[in-house]
Amino acid sequence: MEMLEAPRNFRAARSVEQGMGIATAGARSKAEINMTPMIDVLLVLIIIFMVITPLTPTGLRTLVPQPPDAAEHESSRDIVVTVERDGSIRLNAERIELLTLYERLSQIYSARGDTVLFVRGDQHLEFRQIAAVMDIAKGAGLQRVALMTN
Question: If I label 128, which of 90, 94, 139, 146 is the partner at 20 to 30 A Cα–Cα?
Fold first, then answer.
């Protein structure tokens, strides 16, 4: 049996790897990513987000608190008991003795609707001096005693 030669008008078949453009182990070419389609997709996404985003920002409708009037601030109804460094006591701006504090607080808070007292003390005082004022306030019928800092 003789081997038949392929006619000269036919080419020899190439391997599938070479015909599809896939690199074989012996080839030295590197794979490259085509960036043009990625850039096109990116630009389309940017345009879509620009169209979707509203031009005028809209927020929640809120009422912003306004600063109080000067006349309203001066006539503050808060009662503040201040214990000074030397142990003296002031009821707002009035100097008062510790023994008469109970009567003054009872007199003031019997006519008022709120029962809150603010106590401010010097930072160098012992807490027992502040606690004495707080005990007198509780005895006078005050429901809440708040401590103030400088």
Answer: 94
